[in-house]
Amino acid sequence: MSEDLTTKPMFEAILEGQRHIVAQLVDLRKGYDSLAAKVDQIAAKQDELAGRQERLELRMAELGREVRDGLYNTNRAIEVFNKRVLDFEVWLRRVDERPHDEILLRTK
Predict the structure, then answer these.
(1) 8 CB-near residues (< 8 Å, 6+ apart)
(2) pLDDT band at residue 4, thresholds of 50, 70 and 90?
(3) pLDDT confidence band for 2 (50 / 70 / 90)
């Protein structure tokens, strides 16, 4: 019985130490599960952001095409306008030269 008295407190201390270790492992597991859930949330958010970025890139490409098309159409309209202005200038020059030609003919 004297052996029981000396080994029992030691076994209880070992058992208590094991319980403490198990409690720490449970806490660690809870922390790990919580961290894994946060990682999953971050991964989902990252996937969402990647999708948004992809949509933005597609929209930017679309807007770029619209701008290029708009500039092309605007440049064509400017070219047409410039040609009309040039034609008008030529016509106006002819109208302006007729009286001078008539005056020159009459004065000779």
Answers:
(1) none
(2) low
(3) low
